[in-house]
UniProtKB/TrEMBL annotation:
Domain of life: Bacteria
Keywords assigned by UniProt, alphabetized: Coiled coil
Coiled-coil positions: 58-85
Protein name (Swiss-Prot/TrEMBL): DUF484 family protein
InterPro entries the record matches: DUF484 (IPR007435), GAF-like_dom_sf (IPR029016)
Gene3D superfamilies, per database record: 3.30.450.40
Length: 234
């Protein structure tokens, strides 16, 4: 009878994984109060080996740290590149401002582009209504019926920056004195609204100038060149 009178103990509740996860999320300090559990919990790798949760956490933190270090390195590299480019633009501005003549403007621009920006060829074209002489190398008047203007008719019409590959015929028109083939170029309007002309930067590398590249540097260069030209053209 004693056995019949005994009260059966209630069965322990069975917890599913979702309840365990919810409990741990709501009590993030649980493992801090029971650090001994970290040594017994195991995480199975894809290779089949098992490691403690502490080891797994260390691996994850190490991976995150490497990613952060890589990102920081790239940011520092970009900052250094931008600083160097800003210094080179400043040097270009000084060179153009101090140039005593149109010929010196062209020579200074060519020198800075080659030495500091890796540009192989430079041509400045100016509207023939503003300047007609042909006595400065790399500086040409843009006559309405000239072969150069016809070769770049779309640019002359839209006055929008063009960057990308350059075929041999157009390269020859734009850079007639180039000793090696020019495979890509950036063509930038000078004083777009006033239609002063253009500045063209050419490279022997086909990938140097791309259609979707940033235009800020090109626009800054064109503004500096236009200001230098206006100061000497009157």
């Amino acid at each position: 009878m004693a056995e019949l009178d005994a009260v059966a103990e209630p069965a322990a509740p069975v917890l599913d994984e979702k309840q365990v996860v919810a409990y741990l999320k709501s009590r993030p300090e649980f493992l801090l109060r029971h650090p001994e559990l970290l040594e017994h919990l195991e995480v199975v790798h894809a290779t089949g080996s098992a490691v403690s949760l502490i080891e797994r956490q260390v691996d994850l933190l190490r991976g995150k740290n490497l990613k952060l270090e890589d990102r920081l390195a790239r940011l520092l590299e970009t900052a250094a590149d931008n600083e160097k480019r800003a210094a080179n633009v400043h040097k270009l501005a000084r060179t153009l401002i101090r140039a005593p003549s149109l010929a010196a403007v062209v020579a200074g621009l060519r020198s800075c582009m080659k030495e500091d920006f890796g540009v192989d060829e430079v041509t400045i074209g100016v509207n023939a209504n503003v300047y007609k002489r042909h006595d400065i190398e790399g500086f040409v008047p843009l006559e309405p019926d000239s072969a150069l203007v016809r070769a770049f008719e779309n640019f002359i019409r839209t006055r929008l920056i063009e960057c990308g590959p350059l075929d041999a015929e157009r390269a020859k028109r734009l850079f007639p004195k180039a000793e090696q083939p020019i495979l890509s170029a950036a063509i930038v309007p000078l004083e777009k609204e006033k239609n002063l002309g253009l500045v063209a930067l050419g490279s022997r590398e086909a990938e140097r100038f791309q259609p979707r590249q940033g235009k800020l540097f090109l626009e800054m260069t064109a503004e500096l060149v236009a200001a230098a030209l206006r100061a000497r053209l009157g």
